């Protein structure tokens, strides 16, 4: 006899094919806690804004210390990584009843819409929000073409 499966269990599987950022790792029983012994890494949510002269990347990293955040930029790629430590240590007798906040290492690599001047990048971390401003590198050059008739 066929077993009836509730639609709510199928939704994450369908979303994986429809939404490329949706991962089966978010779905029971496929979650990392069932298949991996390595420490998981959080993925930052980012906003990327392009102006005429610069690229601005904004992300929230509430709870991370400034010393624990690293930003790398090269050509048209930027990587943000670091670590957020839980404010309450997991010890004997401590049991998390419900968890939604990610604690531990995080990273995000973003391909930017234009090449950048990485050496002129500026970053500001205020109230848990990291804002990175990077001037765009001018790559358009006018090249004259000489037409030769055969």
From TrEMBL:
Superkingdom classification of source: Bacteria
Record-annotated SHSP domain positions: 37-150
Homology family: Belongs to the small heat shock protein (HSP20) family.
Name of the protein described by the UniProt record: SHSP domain-containing protein
């Amino acid at each position: 006899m066929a077993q009836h499966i509730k639609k709510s269990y199928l939704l994450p599987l369908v979303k994986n094919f429809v939404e490329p950022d949706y991962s089966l790792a978010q779905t029971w029983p496929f979650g990392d806690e069932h298949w991996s012994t390595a420490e998981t890494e959080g993925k930052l949510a980012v906003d990327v804004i392009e102006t005429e002269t610069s690229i601005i990347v904004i992300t929230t990293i509430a709870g991370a210390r400034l010393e624990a955040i690293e930003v790398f930029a090269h050509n048209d790629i930027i990587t943000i990584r670091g670590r957020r430590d839980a404010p309450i240590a997991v010890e004997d007798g401590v049991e998390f009843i419900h968890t939604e906040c990610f604690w531990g290492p995080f990273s995000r690599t973003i391909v930017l819409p234009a090449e950048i001047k990485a050496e002129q990048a500026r970053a500001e971390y205020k109230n848990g929000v990291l804002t990175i401003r990077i001037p765009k590198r001018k790559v358009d050059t006018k090249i004259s073409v000489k037409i030769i008739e055969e």
